[in-house]
Amino acid sequence: MKKNIRASALMGGILALAFFLRIRGANYGLPYVYHPDEPLYINISQNIFKSGDLNPHFFLYPSLFFYINAFAYIPYYLAGKLAGIFVAPNSIAPCVSLGLGIAQTMTPSAVTLGRVVTICFGVATCALIYLAGRQLTGRAEVGALAALITAISPTNIEQSRLITPDTFVAFFSMTAFLAAILIYQQGKTWQSVMAGICVGLTASSKYNGGLIILPVILAYFLRYGRTTSRQPKVYLTLFFCAAGFLLTTPYALFDSAKFLNELRYEAHHYATGHLGMEGNTLAWYVNYLWNTNGGIYLFAVFGIFLGLASRSREYALLSIFPLSYFTFISNFVVRNERTLLPITPFLFLLAAWFLITLIDKIASLPASPLRNLSFAFFACATIAAFSIPIAKTAEEMRRFNTIHSIEAARVWINGNLPQGAKIAIESYSPFIDTTRFSWQSFLRMNQHEPDWYVEQGFDYMVMSEGMYGRFYLEPDRYPTEIEKYDRLFDTFEALKFFDNNGYEIRIYKVR
Predict the structure, then answer these.
(1) Strands, DSSP E only, in 350-481?
(2) Which of 87, 9, 72, 4 is CA-nearest to residue 41?
(3) Is the pLDDT of residue 1 over 70?
(4) Half-sphere exposure of 251 toward its Cβ, with a 13 Å CA cutoff?
(5) Neighbouring residues of 398: CB distance < 8 A, sequence distance ≥ 6
(6) CA-based angle 462:99:399, to the nearest 5?
(7) What is the pLDDT of residues 470-495, one digit of tens each?
(8) φ, ψ of residue 392 in degrees (nearest 5)
(9) Which residue(s) pair with 439 in the sheet?
(10) How far apart are CA 89 and CA 384, in angstroms?
């Protein structure tokens, strides 16, 4: 009993830590929304709630994520109506966008609502990781350590406070994996149904999440061997995979032409490229993993090798999804950090299991200088591995206490540029006062030569590192793009630069 109480208290503390680290930035930047995707996703969910039309009319991602956020507006709206804030659903104002990553909302609490929904799923993922680790290994400490790593992981924290579907994929993939563990260990019918539904929900959060079916299929093979194909439960699972997906992305059937067209478009997009986020995909992902959680991912790799050496079925069950998924996304041309998110819980479980196993091995050694030296080396390696995510998370917390360059530039523009000036703004730039200035937004400012901006009568240009910076990070890949930006930088007068939090905004005078 005492052991259970201690375990519950420990997990309560880990979940509280996870919630605190995520909720800290839930209202950051508001009423301005500078993430490139959040405004679109917010407006889609609001439209579903306001109109009652369950067709999102958007299928670059499946629909479950939008339905969950739309459902969250029901209690939000009712509470606002009782308080006299809202008169009708349309009282909830949509986001107004001037360009990519340049948006404002007149209802900041609606944005906070969506971010809190994601945070809740992120924190719940930590709980699922604990349950999966305990169930798979029989060691509660494995699950608790993996949950702790997830709680402090900078990637998981950042993605858990954004209104995007990736945290939902991580959550539902862990529910599917937990069901796979139960199939392998017990093989009950309800577990087969649960596995199918959870796989369907994962794919309905983001299409690539459908790969979570692999550990489910492997669980059947590990349990039934050659007779797997003759097990009715396998087909029951497959049926509920389809049912889980179609019940939560129903317009894949009812608006199939648009669904298939946008699915093909998204596949083509990832296969062909996205300027500034393309090429050297495998190396980019490996570098990103190392820079965010360093040695922890190295421990996960050691765990995979340990599983291979010991021919452990449990390690195989835990490894198949991250290995297959990582191989899958590494073959795309487009790469970004959030695409990695679904495999992070599995890698953290592998790392935690390896560390706990290593502690047991060292502890079993007879008392000797070798044992003491092994413990010292283990402690130093573990501290070094954990120092990277802790430092990055602490740095992120400090960021919330300083004014971001985008906000500082917004205030300066509105206070220092003459009313009526014509301003060209690039993606990821500050939101300018549209009642004071004439404006036009551009995806990339180097789309045109300097003379063009003069001919069009622009007075000022606002450029953001969020766009031009990606090209300067890879000069060998983008020499033409850099040359065009250099001509803009050299032609016009540099009026004001902002570089708070290591993010640069440049303002130039055109004439």
Answers:
(1) 422-426, 438-442, 460-464
(2) 72
(3) no
(4) 21
(5) none
(6) 70
(7) 999 999 999 999 999 999 999 999 99
(8) -70, -40
(9) 423
(10) 51
Distance CA 204, CA 168 (A): 10
pLDDT of residue 502: 83
Distance of CA 220 to the CA centre of its chain: 30
Q: Smallest Cα–Cα separation from 293: which of 472, 122, 171, 158?
A: 158
Residue 378: count other Cβ atoms within 10 Å of its Cβ.
15
Which residues in 427-502 belong to E strands, given as ranges?
Answer: 438-442, 460-464, 493-498
Q: How many residues does the chain have?
A: 511
Average pLDDT, the chain: 93
Type of residue numbered 395: E
- Model confidence at 25: pLDDT above 70: yes
Locate 421 and state its tokens. Answer: 């000036």
- Sort 17 into a burial class: Cβ within 10 Å, 0-12 / 13-18 / 19+: middle
Q: What's the pLDDT tens digit per position in 131-190?
A: 999 999 999 999 999 999 999 999 999 999 999 999 999 999 999 999 999 999 999 999
Cα distance between the two ends of the chain = 76
User: Hey, which residues does 215 pair with through a beta bridge?
Assistant: none
SS3 368: coil
Q: For the residues 205-221, what does the mean pLDDT come to?
A: 97
When pLDDT is averaged across residues 208-233 and rounded to a whole number, the result is 96
CA–CA separation, 187 and 204 (whole Å): 25
DSSP-based three-state secondary structure for 86: coil
Helix (H, G, I), strand (E, B) or coil at 339: helix
